[in-house]
Amino acid sequence: MRLPERSGNQVRIGVAITVPEPYGSELQAARARFGDPWADFIPPHITLLPPTVVEHDAMPGIDAHLADVAAQHAPFVVRLRGTATFRPVSPVVFMQLVEGISGCEGLEADVRAGVLAQELRFPYHPHVTIAHEVPDAQLDMAFDGMADFDATFVVTHLHCYAHGDDGVWRPSRDFVLTGPEPDGTGTAAGTGADVGASRPADAGSVTST
Q: Is there a contact between 171 and 182 (Cβ–Cβ < 8 Å)?
């Protein structure tokens, strides 16, 4: 896995939608079962911003940017069903989204702007990786073994992840989606969340190791 180099006080971050329980543990166990060496280091997620190196002093501005993004987007439903692959371009098998693609695309576009603006190597394609950089036989096992997996959940937060010196990606802050629903209400229905709310993430709620 290619990661941008960091130096001095720089930190390596990413932004993602964390797959909630019980599905997160199921997908992480599957990734380990298929021999993926990153299974214990990366919680199951939908990427919104790939690994990015920033100055430590830039984090308050990044937090403010992500809070502003979260305040513009309402919760939405994601459904994962069936597998797909990026082969032969990249040795990856993933769970595909059959619902929630537009919600992810809107979040990604707004996250990857302003202080986090950057170009992507490939067009954005929301997904949840279940096997990466393993032999073809194991990729085939992942593709076939998870073909019947089906999970639906509501996306209510986005997480800013920090990459630890031990190689583990951990959620450091979460940002509640509080944008208006399509009916025009000012608070996302059923959340009771305050607009722009953010808080330190509960790392214990995500299986990382």
A: no
